Amino acid sequence: MYCGFGHADSGFVPIFIYAIFGSSRQISIGPAALTSLLVSNVLGKIVDSSDALYTELAIVLTLMVGILECIMGLLRLGWLIRFISHSVISGFTTASAIVIGLSQAKYFLGYEIDRSSEIVPIIKSIISGADKFSWPPFVMGSIILAILQTMKHLGKSRKHLKFLRAMGPLTAVILGTSSAKIYHPSSITLVGDIPQGLPSFSIPKCFKHAKSLIPTTLVITGVAILESVGIAKALAAKNGYELDSNQELFGLGAANVLGSFFSAYPTTGSFSRSAVNHENGAKTGLAGVITGIVMCCALLFLTPVFEYIPLCALSAIVISAVISLVDYEEAIFLWPVSKKDFLLWTITAITTLFFGIEIGVLIGVGFSLAFVIHESANPHIAVLGRLPGTTVYRNIQQYPEAYTYNGIVIVRIDSPIYFANTSYIKDRLREYEIVVDKLTRRGPQVGRIYFVVLEMSPVTYIDTSAVQALKELHHEYKSRHIQIAISNPNRNVLLMLSKSGLVELIGKEWYFVRVHDAVQVCLQHVESIKEDHMASGSDSSPEETESSFFKSLLKQRGEDSSVAQLESGTNNKPSDLKHSDPLSEPLLFQKS
After folding, report:
1. Are strands 511-512 and 381-386 parallel, antiparallel or unpaired?
2. Interatomic CA distance for residues 445 and 385, integer angstroms
3. I need a labelling partner for 395 at 20 to 30 A (CA). Which of 50, 107, 142, 527 fits?
4. 484 three-class SS
5. Are residues 482 and 401 in the same domain?
6. Residues 190-205: pLDDT tens digits?
């Protein structure tokens, strides 16, 4: 740890508070290396760590962080955590496990190494201090680590030895303490003196510096949320339950607010202790309560015993726990399945390793958001064709046997339509008008597209920008004698189209319940175009024939349909179109 005060207080009082208000079943609340590093780095620039003001500022900082977390939880801002994808969390936990594991190496090697959340300074420090290497702590730590890993493996692989997994850490402590008591090795660092007694109640002071602590409060809160909730989400996923992010935020905030009245500094979910909790089979928040009770008893009665615990034994417990969090298997799984998610995993892991935990997560989340925005602004759009022998229309790329009709293009938009993607959708629709796909086509032979059927059942929402884009598209199509038909919009979308006047503009008779209904009507009109053109012969140009035809279409519009009638499908077939067989194809003429 990096702050000399309040460790026992931070590890004792907030545990009980979080057990009441928090939602994670495995996370362990208390002093964390990263938070301690941030506190010491920031407060060290304001006042010397030996000054009493240092402690007071840290306690005030705890209160401010807790208040901000509580506010975020009460305002239900936990949804922000949804943008932390599983790939980001996996990459973050993998890199963090490596950094935390290496930071524990000093207890194995027998000399101090630089404290950092980045891997390069830690490795440089390990290499530069190699001449101070000490064998006794390395041997003891390695033996205890090997015992822990063996007990863990046996506990996982053999059901009747499952208890060994939970007994591992206790065995490590007993072995280490016994060795220290018997042999008294001078080169092995022990825990040392721990102040006896419970923390006393006191009100935070020194609020005159609160303004200067606001930026630090925001940073620590952000890191606490990203780290704690990230850890909690990862452990929740591993244990098969859903995490309530809002409750998690409020639980962390309450633990910090009430902890500040007992001289605690900013506490968060401890990566290493949470990993130990998970590894030892913690299934409910009761694990935290038991931990708090044990700490209470330890602070009152057992501090003289803990004085002889070797730090290398505790380090072995932490390293054993974080080894299982190195999720390289996820990267192997993602590579063939999703290159995008693999990229997210890799970016998060590398940036976390080389630029620190908080920066790594922020960059990972940033890339996640960039991918989300890109997908939303460039939605999937499919050209549909009819499956033979059915009235079902599916993506022609997914179902090559599906066929299309001459003069008609059927397009399905697989996302909400809003300001960010209207331009992309319009561009794609123009492409479908111009580019004649080399597909199996049926129906009357015509030279170009006359109808664009928009299948809108996947469209859950449209905004005014989308409405305006559809109006512009309608006018653009109208100038080229192309008619839009709308198929199966949901109620909210239909209401928006009606209120905006788009229903009247396009024509109520061009709204359909099914794609098949729209296609049958369009086929009839395509046949009429074909017949009119053939009847006119050379006396009229194709443009004049098309123009007169579309004028006749405008005259056919009914003005007595409401939105409810549109939804019921009572208004979307001309009276002269009859379907005796839903699988039949009226007005289809196969050309030999």
Report:
1. unpaired
2. 17
3. 527
4. strand
5. yes
6. 887 777 777 778 888 7
Asked if pLDDT for residue 397 goes beyond 60, the answer is: yes
301 and 413 belong to one structural domain: no
Q: Does the structure show a pLDDT above 50 at 312?
A: yes
For 465, the token pair is 């920008």
Asked whether the CA dihedral 570, 572, 578, 584 is positive or negative, the reply is negative
Statement: residue 583 has pLDDT above 50: no
CA 394 to CA 400: how far, in whole Å?
10
First to last CA, the chain: 84
What are the φ and ψ backbone dihedral angles of 290, each rounded to 5 degrees?
-65, -40
Residue 45: inside a domain, yes or no? yes
Residue 124 resides in a domain = yes
Of 307, 325, 343, which one is at a domain's C-terminal end?
325
Tally of CA atoms within 13 A in the half-sphere of 313 that contains its CB: 22
Tokens of 205: 């002071």
Residues 425 and 311 in one domain: no
Angle between helices 86-103 and 328-337 in degrees, nearest 10 = 150
Q: How far apart are CA 506 and CA 513, in angstroms?
A: 16
Q: Range of 459's domain?
A: 378-531
Distance from C-alpha of 260 to C-alpha of 282, rounded to nearest angstrom: 27
Number of domains in the chain: 2
Separation CA 355–CA 360 (nearest Å): 6
159 lies in some domain: yes
Summarised one tens digit per residue, pLDDT across range 268-291 is 887 667 777 777 777 777 877 887
5: exposed, middle or buried (Cβ count in 10 Å: 0-12, 13-18, 19+): middle
pLDDT tens by residue, 21-55 = 888 888 888 776 557 656 766 776 677 766 778 88
Q: Where is the domain boundary, 325, 346, 361?
A: 325
Predicted model pTM: 0.70
| Three-class SS state of 1 | coil
